[in-house]
Amino acid sequence: MYKWIMFTLFGLAGLLIIFLVATGLPEKQEVAEQEPQFTVPEMAVDAEAAGQIFQSRCISCHGTDLQGGAGPALATVGSTLSKERIYTVIKEGRGGMPSFEKQLSEDEILTLTTWLSSLK
Ligand code: HEC
Predict the structure, then answer these.
(1) What is the pLDDT of residue 42?
(2) Is any atom of ligand 1 closer than 6 Å to the C-beta of 66?
(3) Which pLDDT belongs to residue 64?
(4) Distance between terminal CA atoms of the chain?
(5) pTM here?
(6) In CATH, what class is 47-117?
(7) Domain range annotation of the chain
(8) What is the percent of the chain with per-residue pLDDT over 70, rounded to a whole number?
(9) Whose CA is nearest to atom 24 of ligand 1?
(10) Centre of ligand 1 from the C-alpha of residue 30, in Å
(11) 57 in contact with ligand 1, CB cutoff 6 A
C-alpha cells in the first residue's frame, strides 16, 4: 500500500516537472520574439524639441539628467534598446511606465524616440 502511495506521488511530481518544462519553453520563445515588427521612420535628431517634451513629461520619473528615479536611467538607452522598442515603451507603456499614446502626438513620440535612441 505504502509503495503505491509513493509511486503515485513520484509519478505526479514527474508529471508536474514535465508540465512546467513544456509550458515554460514557449514562454521564453515569446520573450525572444517581442522585438516589434515595424520600423520607426528615420528622422533627424532634434535634441531641443525632444528635451522640452522630456522636461514636461518624463523627468518626474526619469530624472532631470536622465539619471533615473522611479523609472530607469535613460542616459544610454540607445545602446540597450532598439528604436522600435523605445517607441513601443513610450507609446504603450510597460510595468510602471505609463502609456503616452493619448498624451503625446505621433510626432512628439517620434521626436522623443529618435533622440533617446541616439543616446549611446
Ligand atoms: C510615472 C513614472 C514615469 C513617467 C512619467 C515616465 N516613465 Fe518611462 N519608465 C517608467 C518606469 C517605471 C519604467 C520601467 C518599466 C519596466 O520596468 O518595465 C520606464 C521605462 C522607460 C523606458 C525603457 C527603459 C529601459 O531601459 O527599458 C523608456 C525608453 C522610457 N521609460 C521613456 C520615457 C519617456 C520618453 C517618458 C516621457 C514621455 C517617460 N518614460 C515617462 C516610469 C515613467
Answers:
(1) 96
(2) no
(3) 96
(4) 66
(5) 0.80
(6) mainly alpha
(7) 1-34, 47-117
(8) 82
(9) 72
(10) 22
(11) yes
DSSP track, 69-116: SSS---TTHHHHS-HHHHHHHHHH-BTTBPP-TTTS-HHHHHHHHHHH
Q: Which three cell numbers stand for residue 19?
A: 508540465
Task: Tell me the CA–centroid distance for residue 71 and ligand 1, in Å.
Answer: 5
What distance in Å separates the CA atoms of residue 10 and residue 55, rounded to the nearest whole number? Answer: 59
pLDDT value of residue 51: 98
How many other C-beta atoms are found inside a 10 Å radius of the C-beta of residue 26? Answer: 8
The amino acid occupying position 111 is: T
Other Cβ atoms less than 10 A from the Cβ of 34: the count is: 9
Residues 106 and 37: beta-carbon distance below 8 Å: no
pLDDT at 83 over 90: yes
Kindly state the average pLDDT of the residues 105-113: 98
Query: How close is the Cα of 45 to the center of ligand 1, in Å?
Result: 20
Cell of 26: 514557449
The dihedral built from the CA positions of residue 91, 43, 50 and 60, taken in this order, carries a sign that is positive
Check: CB of residue 70 under 8 Å from CB of residue 60.
Answer: yes
